[in-house]
Amino acid sequence: MSLEISNIKIERLKTDFLIIGAGVAGCFAAYEAKRLNPNIDILILEKAHIDRSGCLAAGVNAINAYITPGQTPSSFLEYVKKDSVDLIREDLVYSIAKEVNSVVNLLEEWGLPIPKDETGMPYVRGRGSIIVQGERIKPIIAQATKNTKAKILNRIVVTNLIIKKNKACGAFGFGIRDGKFYIIEAKAVLVATGGASGLYKPNNEGDAKHKIWYSPFNTGAGYAIGIRAGAEMTTFEMRYVSMRIKDLMAPTGAVAQGVKAQQVNSLGERYLEERYKHLGGKSMPTSMRLWATLQENIEGRGPCYLDTTHLNKEQAERLQAYYLHMTPGLTLYWSARGTSPNTDPPEIVGTEPFLVGGHAQAGYWIDINRMSTIENLYAAGDVAGGAPKKYLSGAGAEGMMAGRDVVSRLGSLTHETVFEKDIKDELSRVFKYLESNKNTLKPDELELRMQKTMDDYAGGIASGYILNEQKLLKARKYLKQIKEESKHLFAKDLHELMKCHEVIDRIDVARVLIEHLLYRKETRWPIYQTRGDYPNRDDKNWLKFVNSVYDEAKDEIKIVERECKALDKALLEV
Q1: Per-residue buried b or exposed e for 113-130, using 16+ beta carbons within 10 Å of the residue's own CB
Q2: Is residue 448 part of a domain?
Q3: Burial of 278 (0-12, 13-18, 19+ CB in 10 A)
Q4: Which of 310, 335, 350 is the C-terminal boundary of a domain?
Q5: Nearest to 508 by CA among 490, 526, 486, 523
Q6: Chain segment 489-548, per-residue pLDDT in tens
Q7: How far, CA to CA in Å, does 116 sit from each of 107, 121, 122, 337, 481?
Q8: Beta partners for 363?
Q9: How far apart are the C-alpha atoms of 315 and 170, rounded to whole Å?
Q10: pLDDT tens digits for 3-20?
Q11: Rounded to 5 degrees, what angle do the CA atoms 554, 560, 563 make?
């Protein structure tokens, strides 16, 4: 596809509040802002289509952040703190805990089916989890967002933020279908694009490479545009490696919590209780349960399973139906083999590492209103840092907090002038990969090189998730070379152009991740962040946040340490 930059059509728009990403956080931000001020002008940009985009595209069978009977926001905070080995933003986690049930109540009002018991209470699946029938949860959220009359543009790839004097004043992007270059001027911007998959070589390869746990379409764009803009990022080194059902990468919660299936090894031993009781047994931190599973395999007692052999026929059928709301592949797996959960217990493995601010806590460094270190630039959901285990309802809560703050400040916000030189520079950068030239490097080829580098030298599956300084230094060196090679990418159409920018974003995110992994010289979260050369936890020196700021002009990543502060107990609910 030959291209003349001068022929690109330009679409220039103005809005009060620009929301990048139409997942849970973005949609709830739009809803709350419009509820408080129906006259606020809102524009949502979505890379896919709002009806089935993001992590909830295929549905969900539980809400995993909910204050169940007997629990309080304070107890939720303590649980998250313990599971994250004492290092969290307590202010952020507590503010989420106070709002998650309100988010769920809204979802039910919008039409999400939530089964109830005879007393009218939701069915509790775990200490902070309730059962829902959520195959259509994303269309339900999308319709509620459309009802606000917020403007929505689907199939738009956001390529960079527009920043003036450390203030966010819009974003650039291009249309995957129309090929237009979009210039969006805004008084405030919310990044709600989700986390980053595809940084590492996945469990499954070839045609099955996208059969992964986290959404393959969440490519780290939200992180990348913030990194390039100079926003401060936090805790990238707390990667998220999920325990999942082998090959299918299906979630395990429905089995582990829903039918109380225990983790067992090939000898039938309940190894968490029998061999790792000193680490907390079944109550050990999430990352440690996967670490114990890996140890069982290393020491010759694998593979490991979730033991469902105790289920009767009715329970087995109910479990299979349960997965139809989220991951029907597992139900189809049993059906195709003529087996069932009580005769064919699912094998468990670890995924490749992801950056996910809603399960772990990699993301933007934000204040209590979810504003980043760049004025008028907000972050919510998986792209916001410091508050792990927020999940679906927590992402919605963060979006609402950002929406409220924008509305409260709207009278003092103004549009900033976007310089023509900045427009021309970004237009050229975005579309140069379509120009007819001698470049032959395809985005898939470069992505494979990046993923293999990360897998080999930055603690991927091949190395048992183990990190050390010498390997990380090699990863740093090779990623810098790969970044340089990205200049030679070539796209034959708009879809490949999108993939070019996705791999560039992933490279930028991966480079920041390497610096965080190098800097934290301890092992705080085994598997997520196992330093073979620093195998022990070190609270004396490392009970603090590792943050970073990227200087694009110098191509330098500066590490910044931030204090870990406890929330004033007087502020907590009894």
Answers
A1: bbeeeeeeebebbeebbb
A2: yes
A3: exposed
A4: 350
A5: 486
A6: 999 999 999 999 999 999 999 999 999 999 999 999 999 999 999 999 999 999 999 999
A7: 15, 5, 4, 33, 56
A8: 234
A9: 52
A10: 566 789 999 999 999 999
A11: 170
Domain carrying residue 257: 243-350
- Overall domain count for the chain: 2
Cα–Cα nearest to 159, from 206, 134, 193, 112:
193
Query: Residue 448, Cβ neighbours under 10 Å: how many?
Result: 15
User: How many angstroms separate the CA atoms of 399 and 413, rounded?
Assistant: 19
Q: For residue 448, which of 224, 222, 205, 211 has the smallest C-alpha distance?
A: 205
Residues 369, 190 contacting (CB under 8 angstroms)? no
Let me know if 300 is exposed, middle or buried by CB neighbors in 10 A (0-12, 13-18, 19+): exposed
The whole-angstrom separation of Cα 179 and Cα 201 is 31
Collect all residues with Cβ–Cβ distance below 8 Å to 13 and sequence separation of at least 6. 43, 182, 183, 184, 185
> Taking 80 as the threshold, does the pLDDT of residue 283 lie above it?
no
Residue 521 belongs to domain with CATH number = 1.20.58.100
| Residue 31 lies inside a defined structural domain of this protein | no
On whether the CB atoms of residues 61 and 177 are closer than 8 A, the answer is no
> pLDDT, tens digit, for every residue of 125-164?
888 899 999 999 999 999 999 999 999 999 999 999 999 9
CATH of the domain at 301: 3.90.700.10
39 CB burial (10 A radius; 0-12, 13-18, 19+): exposed
Residue 250 has pLDDT above 90, yes or no: no
Q: What confidence tens digit (pLDDT) does each residue in 470-479 have?
A: 999 999 999 9
The pLDDT score that the predictor gives to residue 421 is 94
Give pLDDT tens digits for 377-399: 999 999 999 999 999 999 999 99
* Sign of the CA dihedral running 84, 459, 294, 126: positive
How far apart CA 125 and CA 178 sit, in angstroms, is 45
Name, in order, each residue with C-beta under 8 angstroms of 280's C-beta and a sequence gap of 6 or more.
288
Rounded percentage of the chain residues whose pLDDT exceeds 90: 82
Q: What is the dihedral of CA 418, 423, 424, 429, to 10 degrees?
A: 150
Q: Are 115 and 131 in contact (CB under 8 A)?
A: yes
Torsion of CA 149, 151, 154, 156, to 10 degrees: -160
pLDDT above 80 for 79: yes
